[in-house]
Design goal:
The complex is a heterodimer of chains A (298) and B (351).
Chain A lengths: L13 E3 L4 E3 L2 E2 H7 L3 H10 L5 H15 L5 H10 L5 H10 L8 H18 L3 H14 L19 H10 L5 H19 L9 H11 L4 H26 L20 E3 L13 H11 L8
Antiparallel strand pairs in A: 1-2, 2-3
Helix pairs in contact in A: 3-10, 3-11, 4-5, 4-11, 5-11, 6-7, 6-10, 6-11, 7-9, 8-10, 9-10
Chain B lengths: L42 E3 L2 E3 L4 E3 L2 E2 H6 L4 H10 L5 H15 L5 H10 L5 H9 L9 H17 L4 H12 L7 E2 L7 H12 L4 H16 L5 E2 L1 H11 L4 H26 L29 H4 L8 H11 L30
Antiparallel strand pairs in B: 2-3, 3-4, 5-6
Helix pairs in contact in B: 3-8, 3-11, 4-5, 4-11, 5-11, 6-7, 6-11, 7-9, 8-10, 9-10
Chain lengths: 298, 351
C-alpha cells in the first residue's frame, strides 16, 4: 500500500508515522487522553500552544454560538446544493465557501483592527484615539464599518453583546476588545449625532475581536468561524435531503417550491428571433455596432 | 414556541447583565410573520428564464439557437454578453478554450485527483479543481481588472498606451498576475495565440496594451521575460468583450472538463486512499520537537496567555508569532482603505 504523501513539503504543523500522529510536538492521542478539548486543539493547531482555561472557555463559547444561524447565505448555499442530491459533502463545502466579503468576513475585520492598532502604535496614539480615526475614515467615506450591523438582527445581534460580556467576564479584554468597544462608542455617537438609528455590533465585530484577543490571527479566526458553521449547514442540508423534495420544483407540495417556474422573474433582453446562420455575420456586426448589448454585459 | 415568559428566561449566564443594550429576557421567541407589504421572493435574472415549454437566454430560445447551428461557444457570448458573436469571434473563443483546456498535472488536475482518491462523485473533483483558479494561478480577474482600471485611469489623464504600459510595469513587474514572465520562453503557444487574434481581426486595445507591457517588462527585467498564457488569454478574452470576471469563470470551468478526465484516470490507474493511509515522515516536519502533553491540572501554571494589555505588548506579540508557520501571523491582507478610496481589493499578501 502506497503511504507516501502526494506533495513534498516541509511542514511545521504535524507529522504522522505508523506509530503516532504528532501535532506541533504533541502526540494527538496523549492530548485527548489527558482530557484536553477539541477547542484546546485549535490553539495547538493554529498557535502552537496550550491555552489557558479562560482562553479555552472563550473559544468554546464563540464556536458554540457561531455554529448555527438558521437561514444565512451559508445554510441557503448548502440547501441549494443539496436539492440536486450530490454527496452531502458538496453541500457542506458550498456552505463554507459562502463566507466572503460580507457574510462572516472575519479576516477582513481582523485586518482592519490590525491596521489601525499598528497605526496607533506607530503614531503614538491611544486605542481610543485610533478608534475615532477608524470610525471617521469609514463613515466619512460612506463605507460600512466592519463588525457593525446585521441585516436580519436589526435590533442588535443576540450573539454579539453577550460575547463581549463573556470576554470581559473571563478577563480577556485585551487591545482588540478595547479597540472594538471604542469603535462602537464612536460609531453609536456619530450615528446619533447624525440622527440615524441604532445599529448594533454584529457577531463578527464581537466574535472576531474575542478570537484575536486570544491569539488567533485574522485568517485563523476566519477559518474557525466559517468551518464551525459548516457543521450546522450539514444539518440543514441533511434535513432537506431526508425530509425535503429533491429538485425543489414539485407541484404536488403544499408550499410553492424554491425552483417552481413561477419563482423566476426575468428582466433581461426581450424575447427575440434567433438569426439564421446565413445572416449571422451581418446580424452580429450590427449588434456589436449598435452597442445596445453592452448594458447587459456581466 | 412563543409561550415562555421573561421570568422563565432569567438567570442564564450574563444575559441579565445591565451592560447589555437590551433586555435579553424580553426578546421574542417564534418566527417572523410573512411580510405581506412587499412582493414575494423570486429569482430575478437578466440572464435567462424558462417556462414549461421554453428556455430563453438573453431573449434567445436556446433550442432554437442550437437548431440554427450555434454551439457552446456562441451561447457563452449570449449568456455573458447578450449578443451573437461574429464568426471570427467564435473561432477565437474556440482557440482560447482549446488552449485553456489542459495544463498537465498543475493545480486543478492535482486537486481533482486528490478528491478522486477519496472515492466520491466526479462532480466534487471537478468543483474542487475550479477552486485552483485564484489571484496567482489563473489570475484572470486580477489581471483583467488591472488592465481595465489602468486603461481608464490612463486615458482620463491623457496618457497613450506606451505610458500606461510603463506605469503598469513599474508597479507590477514581479506580480504573478502581470501576464509577463519567463514561463513561455521556449513555448510559442502564447505568441501564436496573439498572432491568431490579429489574423482574425479580433485583437483590440487589450492586446495592444499587453504587447506594450511585454516590451516595457522586457526592458525593465534583468532576466528574459515574454508574454505568458495569462497575458495572452486574458487580453484576447477581453478584446472579445468578456469582462475580467467572465474570463475568470469561463476559463476555470473550461479546465474543469480536463479535471474530470484526470479524476477518471486517477480511478482507473491508482488506488483509493483510506483514512490514515498517508504518512508524513518526520523528515518532512520542521515544527516543534516532540514534547510531553502537560497535565491538565497544571495548564494554567504552564500556559502563557496570548492576551495583550497594551499596544507595545501587542506589537511585540505580532512579531514573535510570525515564527509559528500556519498561524497566519505572516500573512497581511490588504483591505480597502476607506480614508484614501484606493479601491484595493483584499486578495491576501505575504508580508
Amino acid at each position: 500500500m502506497h503511504r507516501r504523501p502526494d506533495i513534498e513539503r516541509k511542514t511545521s504543523i504535524s507529522y504522522k508515522t505508523e506509530e503516532k500522529t504528532v501535532l506541533r510536538g504533541y502526540n494527538l492521542s496523549d492530548l485527548a487522553e489527558e482530557g484536553y478539548s477539541f477547542t484546546d486543539a485549535m490553539f495547538v493547531l493554529f498557535q502552537n500552544r496550550i491555552p489557558t482555561q479562560k482562553e479555552e472557555k472563550m473559544l468554546r463559547y464563540e464556536m458554540g454560538v457561531f455554529l448555527e444561524h438558521s437561514m444565512s447565505p451559508s445554510a441557503a448555499g448548502a440547501i441549494g446544493v443539496s436539492v440536486g442530491r450530490p454527496n452531502l459533502t458538496s453541500a457542506i463545502a458550498a456552505s463554507i465557501s459562502t463566507f466572503g466579503g460580507v457574510h462572516g468576513p472575519g479576516a477582513a475585520h481582523g485586518y482592519m483592527m490590525k491596521k489601525y492598532l499598528k497605526q496607533a502604535h506607530e503614531e503614538g496614539k491611544t486605542i481610543d484615539e485610533i478608534a475615532k480615526v477608524l470610525v471617521d475614515d469609514y463613515m466619512d467615506n460612506g463605507t460600512p464599518v466592519m463588525g457593525m450591523g446585521q441585516p436580519q438582527h436589526t435590533d442588535s445581534d443576540p450573539r454579539a453583546e453577550p460575547i463581549h460580556l463573556k470576554q470581559e467576564e473571563l478577563g480577556l479584554n485585551g487591545v482588540y476588545l478595547k479597540l472594538q468597544r471604542a469603535v462602537e462608542k464612536y460609531f453609536h455617537a456619530r450615528r446619533k449625532k447624525e440622527g440615524r438609528g441604532y445599529v448594533g455590533v454584529n457577531v463578527v465585530g464581537a466574535g472576531n475581536t474575542a478570537l484575536c484577543d486570544i491569539g488567533f490571527a485574522p485568517n485563523a479566526a476566519w477559518c474557525i468561524g466559517s468551518v464551525s458553521r459548516g457543521f450546522s449547514c450539514a444539518a440543514h442540508a441533511l434535513f432537506n435531503m431526508k425530509r425535503g423534495r429533491a429538485w425543489a420544483a414539485s407541484k404536488s407540495e403544499p408550499m410553492v417550491q424554491m425552483l417552481d417556474l413561477s419563482m423566476i422573474k426575468y428582466v433581461g433582453p426581450p424575447d427575440r428571433k434567433v438569426p439564421k446562420q446565413s445572416e449571422r455575420q451581418e446580424y452580429a456586426r450590427k449588434q456589436k455596432e449598435e452597442g445596445e448589448y453592452k448594458k447587459w454585459v456581466i | 414556541m412563543g409561550d415562555l415568559t421573561p421570568a422563565d428566561k432569567k438567570g442564564i449566564g450574563n444575559l441579565d447583565d445591565p451592560g447589555l443594550p437590551f433586555d435579553y429576557s424580553e426578546r421574542e421567541y417564534g418566527t417572523v410573520p410573512i411580510d405581506e407589504t412587499r412582493a414575494r421572493f423570486q429569482w430575478v435574472s437578466e440572464v435567462a428564464y424558462k417556462n414549461v415549454h421554453r428556455i430563453v437566454a438573453r431573449g434567445y430560445d436556446t433550442t432554437e439557437l442550437v437548431e440554427e447551428g450555434y454551439g457552446v461557444t456562441d451561447v457563452l457570448f449570449v449568456d455573458f454578453q447578450a449578443r451573437i458573436p461574429t464568426v471570427e469571434e467564435d473561432q477565437m473563443l474556440n482557440y482560447v478554450m482549446i488552449m485553456a483546456l489542459e495544463d498537465g498535472l498543475s493545480a486543478p488536475a492535482v486537486m481533482s485527483r486528490l478528491v478522486a482518491q477519496s472515492k466520491t462523485f466526479l462532480t466534487q473533483a471537478c468543483g474542487a479543481s475550479i477552486h485552483a483558479f485564484g489571484h496567482a494561478y489563473g489570475a484572470y480577474s486580477a489581471f483583467g481588472n488591472r488592465l481595465l482600471d489602468e486603461l481608464k485611469a490612463g486615458r482620463a489623464k491623457g496618457l497613450d498606451i506606451d505610458a500606461i504600459a510603463q506605469g503598469i510595469v513599474e508597479v507590477n513587474l514581479d506580480d504573478e498576475s502581470l501576464g509577463v514572465s519567463d514561463l513561455m520562453l521556449k513555448d510559442p503557444a502564447a505568441k501564436r495565440m496573439i498572432e491568431r487574434a490579429r489574423k482574425l481581426g479580433v485583437a483590440g486595445e487589450y492586446v495592444e496594451l499587453m504587447t506594450a507591457i511585454v516590451e516595457k517588462a522586457g526592458a525593465a527585467s534583468d532576466t528574459p521575460v515574454d508574454i505568458d498564457m495569462l497575458g495572452t488569454i486574458g487580453s484576447v478574452m477581453m478584446d472579445l468583450g468578456f469582462t475580467a470576471e467572465a474570463t475568470w469563470a469561463i476559463l476555470a470551468v473550461t479546465r474543469s472538463f480536463a479535471a474530470g478526465a484526470h479524476f477518471i484516470e486517477e480511478i482507473e490507474r491508482a488506488d483509493y486512499r483510506r483514512l490514515g493511509q498517508v504518512l508524513t515522515p518526520p523528515e518532512m516536519y520542521d515544527g516543534h520537537p516532540d514534547r510531553p502533553v502537560p497535565p491538565l491540572a497544571e495548564r494554567d501554571a504552564l500556559a502563557k496567555s496570548a492576551l495583550s494589555a497594551d499596544l507595545d505588548e501587542w506589537a511585540t506579540g505580532q512579531e514573535e508569532r510570525k515564527s509559528v508557520w500556519g498561524s497566519g501571523y505572516s500573512i497581511d491582507e490588504e483591505i480597502e482603505d476607506p480614508s484614501k478610496k484606493t479601491g484595493i481589493k483584499s486578495v491576501g499578501k505575504k508580508l
